[in-house]
Amino acid sequence: MELREDKVYEAIYLAVKSVFDEALERAAAKARSAGRSVDKGDVLLDLIYEAIREGAYRAFREVLASKLARGALEPG
Fold first, then answer.
1. 10 lies in some domain
2. CA distance 70 to 33
3. Domain range for residue 48?
4. Is residue 52 part of a domain?
5. What sign results for the dihedral spanned by CA atoms 67, 69, 72, 76?
6. Which of 16, 23, 29, 59 lies 20 to 30 Å from 44, alpha-carbon distance?
7. CA-based angle 66:58:12, to the nearest 5?
8. Contacts (Cβ under 8 Å, ≥6 apart) of 16
9. Full-prediction pTM beyond 0.70?
10. Of the candidates 31, 53, 52, which has an alpha carbon nearest to the alpha carbon of residue 41?
């Protein structure tokens, strides 16, 4: 049996999409059970916001650590 690259990518995409969709739905259902009015789109936007915020924080921290290591900044 020969594996076609496009079919492998499609299978991976569908598996990830399915897991991601289920996780979004569970998170939205949990928020709704806590009395919040949310849907999967709201959860996705929150997730994207947190990912960007965490990425920016990590990048900022790494730049500061790098500058400290090179002596470009004084600690404190």
1. yes
2. 51
3. 5-70
4. yes
5. positive
6. 59
7. 125
8. none
9. no
10. 31
**Residue 75 covered by a domain:** no
Position of tokens 């959860």? 43
Distance of alpha carbon 69 from the chain centroid: 29
| Biggest CA pair distance of the chain | 62
Tell me if 76 is assigned to some domain.
Answer: no
Residue keyed to tokens 């996705």: 44
Q: What is the DSSP letter of 72?
A: S
pLDDT surpassing 80 at residue 72: no
Task: Convert the pLDDT of each residue in 5-62 to its tens digit.
Answer: 999 999 999 999 999 899 999 999 999 999 989 899 999 998 899 999 999 999 988 9
Is the model's pLDDT at 3 over the cut of 90? no
Reading the block at residue 8, the tokens are 């492998």
